[in-house]
């Protein structure tokens, strides 16, 4: 669709879509969109559209996965074949399995697992439209869906990416910045407790850039947390 | 609606750990919300969940569906992540092995009591006790289990009002199953009322509104 732009940041310091370097894309969260799921959430982050569904706690199948002491959290991240410009072959692939794993580990630590031994909590995240940062969008949606399902948790997980284009750190990469940028670093954290549960990095950042980028991503997560919280409260008033 | 605040997991509630009630957790001497729900602060801080599954605890009176049986026990679905066992010795009469389906068949619904729940949430039931029986006739509807206190009302005011108005027998299981038995149109009214309560459980002045609703429907 689009080739590499000549410049990512114009003279006024604005990005391709007119955002400031530390500005998030517009975020919209809707709670309880799926009737048959125990908890669900629809989330739009810029051009990203994801839907998350939570089932459980429920009986675990296959049975050998069950844990007598605590519940098992399972997470499936899946991109719809029509979610990207070039049709994606449907089904799990190398990338999908990896994103599922890191997302599960980003969400898992907040779930109070000991309340439901021998059961499973199944999280399904479907990406309907992708525009860079789908794993962070998925984690944000999954965490709201878990709360909607009434699952006991220590807090909500919020997630956000920071990257580097034109030697400048920018928050919440969009597709062009992700594809042709110099670095991409998604993080997930419990915004209330300042505890990071996911940190990945792709590309090159210097030590100072990393520290500054982390600060930017943390402030982004805190903004997202406020939107998540508001969506949940508004759903019941 | 001022006394009803919606909280999300991780919300700070209090500095006093002795105030911690259901739906909260204590960390570093501070109380936080553990589920998404409505904060109640009468004597203790409690968060009433707006979602979640029923988890059995001993003494609960519930409605179960018999789904299977083994050599010595019936397997009962209790609307929970965990199945439950009703051992033949917990049937009010003596039951011979291999003769179990004469007494309770697969597909029957029973009013039963939880006797024991172990660490791994294995659940035992009994049919010995007041009001515990096999259900014949009537209809069973699902209700959201954390909203049951609203359906019953203060010392049964709400449920008694529905019983009186609809002339139905109603049994409310703590696992969120409700058995209603009566004339067809009366039963429909009772179910309609119960569904309305479920939808509006988090609002105040509910009993008065339901009384009005029953008045209008008469």
Radius of gyration of chain A: 18 Å
Name of the level-1 CATH class of chain A: Alpha Beta
Work out the count of structural domains of chain B.
Answer: 3
Global shape of chain B: flat
Question: What is the general shape of chain A?
Answer: globular
How would you sum up this structure in a few lines?
By secondary structure, chain A is an alpha+beta fold. Chain A has four helices and ten strands, in the order ββββαβαββαβββα. Chain B contains four helices and 15 strands.
Question: Would you mind describing this structure in some detail?
Answer:
- The complex is a heterodimer of chains A (237) and B (218).
- Chain A is of the alpha+beta class and 237 residues long.
- Chain A contains four helices and ten strands.
- Helices cover 27% and strands 30% of the residues of chain A.
- Chain A has a five-stranded mixed β-sheet with strand order 1-2-3-5-4. In chain A, strands 6, 7, 8, 9 and 10 form a five-stranded antiparallel β-sheet that branches.
- The radius of gyration of chain A is 18 Å and the shape is globular.
- Chain B has four helices and 15 strands.
- In chain B, the strands form four sheets. Chain B has a five-stranded mixed β-barrel with strand order 7-8-9-11-10. A three-stranded antiparallel β-sheet of chain B has the order 1-5-6, with no helix packed on it.
- The interface between A and B is medium-sized, with 33 and 29 residues.
Primary descriptors:
heterodimer; A: 237 residues; alpha+beta; Ribosomal Protein S5, domain 2; 5-stranded mixed sheet; 5-stranded antiparallel sheet; 4 helices; 10 strands; 30% strand; globular; B: 218 residues; OB fold (Dihydrolipoamide Acetyltransferase, E2P); Ribosomal Protein S8, Chain: A, domain 1; 3 domains; 5-stranded mixed β-barrel; 3-stranded antiparallel sheet
